[in-house]
Design goal:
Layout lengths: L1 H14 L5 H17 L1 H24 L3 H38 L15 H4 L4 H15 L4 H18 L14 H6 L2 H7 L1
């Protein structure tokens, strides 16, 4: 339940005209809590927020609203700084222990099945109907909710790239695998459907 709350509060902070410090603090606490309790899910939140920022930035550039573009990125930097500052003690501790742990396990040395796409999870029970309804939601909502749908679709693409960085020639982290990404599909599919 923390992921939707963190994303909604973060987007509300980014969209708000005023500088509501309480909302920024709430979004920062939620994102820090998400990062500290479930780093995998924090990756999904980061992808969702990155997609939102990219879509909004493109909208600002296309409509020549440079001041709005500057404002949203200033708010985004505050949104990034808040959770980082709240997690700083833990990050400092982590930085001292990670080099030893990482040197012992390269991303390519893990079990080949770790990042396999779990087709069984994709095809269970009523998932085909869920994919169909979500696809219809995209088609029906495209005209009225284009930015929102583009953000959701781009977030999905960013999640798949974060899970499979080798597609871009980048090394993997083994933090998130395809099984986690498939399990998390219920969020965008339920929104689109």
């Amino acid at each position: 339940a923390l992921l939707p709350l963190a994303v909604v509060c973060s987007i509300e902070w980014l969209r708000s005209e005023s500088r509501n410090v309480k909302l920024l603090f709430l979004a920062s606490v939620l994102n820090a809590g998400l990062f500290l309790t479930h780093a995998r899910v924090a990756v999904f939140a980061a992808c969702t927020l990155a997609a939102y920022l990219l879509i909004e930035s493109i909208g600002c550039l296309c409509s020549n609203r440079k001041s709005a573009l500057r404002a949203i990125w200033l708010k985004a930097s505050g949104l990034l700084a808040g959770p980082v500052l709240l997690c700083l003690p833990w990050l400092a501790r982590l930085a001292s222990t990670v080099p030893a742990a990482v040197s012992g396990s390269a991303s390519g040395s893990s079990d080949a099945t770790y990042n396999a796409v779990p087709t069984g999870l994709l095809l269970i029970r009523n998932n085909s109907q869920l994919f169909l309804i979500a696809g219809l939601g995209v088609l029906l909502g495209w005209r009225r909710y284009r930015r929102e749908i583009n953000s959701i679709l781009l977030a999905g693409i960013l999640v798949w790239l974060a899970v499979n960085p080798s597609w871009l020639g980048l090394p993997g982290t083994n933090l998130v695998n395809n099984a986690s990404a498939v399990i998390s599909l219920f969020l965008p599919l339920s929104i689109l459907g």
